[in-house]
Amino acid sequence: MSVNTLLMSTSARLRDRRVTLERRATTSKAVRTSLVSLAGLVGGSVTNQAGEEVGRVVDVVARLYGEESYPPVTGLILRIGRRRTFLASDAIGKVHAGQVRLRTARIDMRDFSRRPGEVLLARDVLDHQLVDVDGVQVTRAADLYLAPLVDKVVLVGVDVSLPTLLRRLGPRRWQARPTPERVLDWQAVAPFGEQATDGPAEVRLRASRTVLQRLRPSDLADILEDLGRSERQQLLGWLEPEQAADALEEMEPAELENLLREAAPDHAARLVDEMEPDEATDALRGLTREEREALLTRMPKGEAAELRRLLRHREGTAGGAMTTLLLTSRPAETVAEVRGRLAEQAEHRTEIDAVAVIDEQDRLLCDVGLFDLAVAEDTSLVADLVAWLAQFGPPATVHADTPLAEAADQLVAARASSLLVVDDTDRPLGRILADDLLDAMLPERGRLHFRRFLQ
Known about the structure:
Elements: H1 3-22, H2 29-33, E1 36-37, H3 38-41, E2 45-47, E3 53-63, E4 73-80, E5 83-88, E6 92-96, E7 99-102, E8 118-120, H4 121-125, E9 129-132, E10 137-140, E11 143-149, E12 152-159, H5 162-167, H6 172-175, E13 183-185, E14 189-191, H7 201-212, H8 217-226, H9 229-238, H10 241-248, H11 253-262, H12 265-274, H13 277-285, H14 289-296, H15 301-311, H16 318-321, E15 328-329, H17 335-343, E16 354-358, E17 364-369, H18 370-375, H19 382-389, E18 397-399, H20 404-414, E19 418-422, E20 428-433, H21 434-441, H22 450-454
Parallel strand pairs: 2-7, 15-16, 18-19
Antiparallel strand pairs: 1-11, 2-3, 3-4, 3-8, 4-5, 6-7, 9-10, 9-14, 11-12, 12-13, 16-17, 19-20
Helix pairs in contact: 8-10, 10-12, 13-15, 20-21
């Protein structure tokens, strides 16, 4: 990716984010002044046109997973005497702080039957975990805010602050008091909950990915680590396998092991298969032999065989920390040809920092860094690069059984960002990257997440 392309891509993301923020309902002063607290509404009175109380609000029903940016209220669950009944939204006249006024004196009371995508806001969302995408954190909904928008009442925001949670414990007159300054726009959150998944799968996925696709793998990793067991399995189900695998590669080892144990074996195997080989090997090492085999037997045979080969290398050695993802080249190729094959590996850009040049017997000749490849002429031969780089000495290599401490010394001495791992005949086996080397040598400090800085 060129500098101009990168700048254009960054500018586009910032512009899209600005447009998204401008379109959020809670930026409107009119909406912020008309907010109605769900916590204050539950238990509030429902009155007819004459002002007579006909019942009390038990819960608010909204279509959480639909085409709308803000979930519309589709009805209320009321308590009338000892009976609970459903009131459709077309009978609602006005929703005030702590009370509801009906549109008509005649109302159609019916038993509640949940329709696709509907949830009970107080039961299914309030006090449940959700993801604050803007703040990149897992939190809980202390209150939800409704507001009239166009011709209907919709869910526009959520409050996650501790003062609001304390407000709900106070007198009734406090509970209905919204706090606009603490509101998070609904478009900036992704809700969770067992009952919040009743909508059609394709609708749930579309709604959830809209907000989650803005998060980087490192952000998703932090969120997965903070979620409860059922919520993070739900989140994993929302993500594409490639996106989920990228997030798993950024997780703390202990959290990743727990996540793989919690997931269904077929799903866990698919996630491990999507991970980079070195990261997948690290993930499997923490499992028991039985758990590893349960996943490996569910993976494609070629990928499983590769991981088994990597697992045979002892932990704490270069072979145990290397990735087998290598881009190789022959001297007779042109620089343009190598760049073309490099572009095809864009999804592995964090795993490739050089191209290994090999001879006809697959023995290593040179390790060409991406910078040298970038500044070379398209028509230049790789052999010319090999000849020019020869003046700086042979490429830095280690063997599979080299201790990581020794590999680190060689990495520092070479002033390189990776080392090639070769066999006794100088044939490349894999590559050990600087960040993986540090992660392996400094486990007590946690994963350093070099990719987070690079992104």
